[in-house]
Amino acid sequence: MKKAINKIKDYFSTNFEVLAATIILIMILVAGIEFYRAIILMLEFIVVMEVVKMISDFIKKETLRLRYVIDIFIIFLIRDVIILTTNKNRDYFDISFLLVVIFVFFLFRILAIKFSPGIIKISKDTVIEYDDERPNKKVITTKESNSDEQ
Asked: 138 Cβ partners below 8 Å, 6+ apart?
């Protein structure tokens, strides 16, 4: 039993998100807040967290990541969809329109991640190692790496 408790304690010491979500869920159950209202409040909280993370990242690195901005819009639009779907007088056109806009933002997010200069890109002929944190950047083609191994 003690070993299991230590495993749980170790898990929560490295995964604060699970602990925070558990505490929030318990608070919602104790307070008796309606579930959809709690979800809306949590999504608003996530939007605020993303804005703070974006501002903090901008202050530290003096660059604004497009991915953070797109994430904020996606979360805000998901919040609006939840609000519209829980409304008694639903307007399905507005809900459908917002879902299409969310899909477009997801496509933009995928493109922002795929063409970001701070990730490792692998193609058929070239492996490009590039990271924002390291000053040295090197490009290795597969032909060069094969000749190095011989």
From this structure: 129
In eight-state DSSP terms, residue 57 is H
Strand residues in the chain grouped as ranges (E): 121-122, 126-129, 138-141
- CA 87, 91, 95: angle at the middle one, nearest 5? 90
Which DSSP symbol is given to 149? Answer: H
pLDDT digits (tens, 9 = 90+) for 84-134: 888 788 888 989 999 999 999 999 888 887 777 655 555 555 544 444 554
Q: How far apart are CA 74 and CA 72, in angstroms?
A: 6
Cβ contact 54:65 at 8 Å? yes
Judged by DSSP in three states, 122 sits in: strand
Structure tokens belonging to residue 32: 């008796």
Closest CA to 140 of 127, 121, 123: 127
